[in-house]
Design goal:
The chain is α/β, with parallel strands linked by helices.
């Protein structure tokens, strides 16, 4: 039996990653309801987004997908259809970030998803499911990084905060949030043509990526009280070497590599702290707190500024673009 759109009843559209003799490939395909994985909540993703990890999954550039076939998409927001979980009922608006979705559990680039209710958080009051995915995992990660700096005592009075990969998803949201909280933000980017965009988000200074690209010294001139880094490798080592006494850097990405070719000098001579940020398995209480903060501390006008909308079929091209540094801000995916 088929629907009026020619789609088999009991199936839905999804971006599916498969593996063959020549490697992995991704395509927009029909997927059968019967092949959904176990879970106590079934919901309808209405919006998703494109993160760096999604780009790796759909292009096969890195082995982030651990089972096949896999529906890609590490985050989504939508409406609960059925639930046996005590916290959720049909009609609830929910957000999912991480928990292995798109890697070991079927992901969110799909018109239907079945997951554990313990993985979900409610869409904050006043926020739509589209807003939630305009923020997405990148923005939620940025908020986790801001909260980590706050817990370490890095306040606006302590000095500037540097944000690397500033024109990307994490960087864009981090700048918008930090500036609203009163921080002096220094934006580091390889796309200096985006300077006006970054200033509109709230960056007070723009520095070229090259300033953080040289061979890291054990210690360099103190320039900032802290940082949010989504790049890793040499830039992160340089950020640490330039961090002021007692400062902290929140690290949440590896666009430049997984290595850290630096020195222990910032840690033992300046008391600098490196704060690891994990969004995938983050405890539920912290997730809820981060999303509540985003509802308050992220200017919706700035969110609109950084967001572009694409269709589910456009995810494949977008995945390649985000790996090439060709995406500014956030891409929100209309799933339903």
């Amino acid at each position: 039996m088929y629907s009026r759109e020619g789609q088999a009843v009991g199936t839905f559209k999804a971006v599916v990653v498969t593996k063959g003799e020549s490697g992995t490939s991704a395509a927009l395909s029909d997927f059968n309801d019967a092949d959904l994985m176990e879970g106590d909540v079934t919901f309808r993703p209405e919006w998703s987004t494109v993160n760096y990890k999604d780009g790796l999954a759909v292009t096969g550039k890195s082995p982030v997908v651990r089972r096949f076939p896999m529906i890609a998409g590490i985050d989504g927001a939508g409406t609960v259809e059925t639930s046996s979980h005590p916290d959720w009922k049909p009609g609830d608006k929910v957000i999912l970030n991480g928990w292995g979705c798109g890697e070991t559990h079927l992901g969110m680039y799909a018109q239907r998803a079945r997951v554990k209710g313990d993985w979900l958080v409610p869409v904050p009051t006043g926020m739509t499911t589209r807003d939630a995915m305009a923020i997405g995992t990148a923005g939620y990660t940025a908020m986790l990084a801001v909260m980590a700096l706050e817990r370490h005592g890095v306040t606006p009075a302590r000095g500037p905060i540097v944000v690397t990969g500033a024109a990307g998803g994490v960087g864009s949201v981090a700048i918008a949030v930090l500036s609203k909280l009163g921080y002096h933000v220094i934006a580091s980017t390889g796309r200096t043509s985006e300077a006006e965009y970054l200033q509109r988000l709230g960056a007070s200074e723009i520095i070229a990526r090259e300033e953080l690209a040289g061979t890291p010294r054990p210690l360099a001139k103190e320039r900032w009280a802290g940082g949010i880094d989504s790049v890793g490798s040499v830039p992160l080592a340089n950020v640490l070497a330039m961090t002021k006494y007692g400062g902290a850097v929140a690290a949440c990405g590896l666009a430049a590599g997984m290595d850290l070719p630096g020195s222990v000098a910032p840690f033992i001579l300046r008391g600098v702290s490196l704060l690891g940020i994990d969004s995938v398995m983050c405890p539920l209480a912290v997730r809820r707190a981060a999303w509540q903060r985003l509802a308050v501390d992220l200017d919706r006008k700035k969110l609109s500024e950084i967001t572009n909308e694409i269709a589910l079929a456009d995810v494949l091209d977008a995945g390649a673009k985000i790996l090439g540094g060709g995406v500014r801000g956030r891409l929100v995916v209309k799933v339903d």
